[in-house]
Write a structure and sequence with these properties.
The chain has about 260 residues and is an alpha/beta fold. The chain is built from twelve helices and eight strands. Strands 3-4-2-5-1-6-7-8 form an eight-stranded mixed sheet, with helices on both faces.
Length: about 260
C-alpha cells in the first residue's frame, strides 16, 4: 500500500490550516509512520514556521511544477529536506508558486502534475500531508486531485461557515471531472467551550457535515503560538498539553480510516 495523501485546505484563512498540517504530520511521525509535509502555499507559512526560508533554498515545491520530470529521483532529492528536530521530511514552498496560474496555462494535464509526481515517492512514505493555498487555483486543484482525503479545518466561528461554502463549490466542480467523488472530512478548530457562540457553531457544523466530520475537536491552546515562535511543533514544547493530545486523537482517527 502506497502513501496516503492528506490535503489540508480551506479557502478562508486563519482557521488553523498550517497548524493542522504541521501538528498532524508530527503526531503521525511520533507514531512511527514515515511522513512527508509539502507546503503548496505561496505564502510559505508552514515552511517559515519550520525555519525553511525559500530564498535560501535550492529546491522547493515550485520545481515540481515548473520543471519537466525527466529524472524524478534527482528532482525529489533536491526538493526534500529532512527536518532536524522532527522525524519527517519537508518540501518547502516558494513565492513563485503564485506564478503557476500563468506559467501552466497551456500545459496539458496540469491538474494532475502533483498526483503523477507523488507516484515516484509512493513507497517512501506512509502519509503525505499537503498544506494548501487559501484560494481556488491550479495548486488547490492539484492537491485535491492527488489526495485520498481532504481535511477541512473550520474555526468554530460564524464567519468560518462562509469559507466552507466556497470550498464546497470547488469540490462540486471537481467532482464533475474526477473519476470518483472527493473524500473529505471537516475538523473543528479553535474551539472555546466557554463561549456560547463556539458551541452553537460546533453544533451547526455537526448538523451540516454529519459523518463527514471528525469526532476530534481542536481547542484553543497557547502552546501552538509558543511552538510557532520557536520554529517548533507543539510536541517539542509540551506533548501533554491539550492541543497536543487533540492532534494525537486526530491522527488515530485518520489511521482508523484505512
Amino acid at each position: 500500500m502506497g502513501a496516503r495523501v492528506l490535503a489540508v485546505a480551506n479557502q478562508k484563512g486563519g482557521v488553523g490550516k498550517t497548524t493542522t498540517t504541521l501538528t498532524l504530520a508530527a503526531a503521525l511521525a511520533n507514531k512511527g509512520y514515515r511522513v512527508l509535509i509539502m507546503d503548496l502555499d505561496p505564502h510559505a507559512c508552514a515552511s517559515v514556521h519550520l525555519r525553511y526560508y525559500p530564498e535560501g533554498l535550492v529546491g522547493t515545491a515550485f520545481d515540481l511544477f515548473s520543471k519537466e520530470i525527466e529524472d524524478a529521483e534527482a528532482l525529489w532529492k533536491s526538493i526534500r529536506h529532512r527536518h532536524e528536530m522532527q522525524t519527517f521530511d519537508v518540501v518547502p514552498a516558494h513565492i513563485r508558486l503564485s506564478e503557476l496560474e500563468v506559467d501552466l496555462r497551456g500545459r496539458k494535464g496540469k491538474g494532475a502534475i502533483l498526483q503523477q509526481a507523488l507516484e515516484h515517492v509512493q513507497d517512501d512514505y506512509d502519509y503525505v500531508v499537503l498544506d494548501c493555498p487559501p484560494h481556488v487555483g491550479i495548486l488547490l486543484v492539484n492537491a485535491i486531485v492527488a489526495s485520498n482525503l481532504l481535511i477541512i479545518p473550520i474555526q468554530t466561528d460564524f464567519l468560518a461557515l462562509h469559507g466552507l461554502k466556497l470550498l464546497f463549490d470547488t469540490i462540486r466542480i471537481l467532482n464533475k471531472a474526477m473519476p470518483s467523488p472527493v473524500k473529505y472530512k471537516a475538523l473543528a478548530t479553535m474551539y472555546d467551550r466557554r463561549a456560547g457562540a463556539c458551541n452553537r457553531v460546533l453544533e451547526l457544523i455537526g448538523q451540516k457535515m454529519g459523518e463527514n466530520m471528525f469526532q476530534t475537536v481542536i481547542g484553543i491552546d497557547t502552546k501552538f503560538r509558543e511552538a510557532s515562535a520557536q520554529g517548533k511543533v507543539i510536541y517539542d514544547i509540551d506533548k501533554n498539553t491539550r492541543g497536543a493530545k487533540a492532534y494525537e486523537a486526530l491522527a488515530e482517527e485518520i489511521m482508523s480510516i484505512w
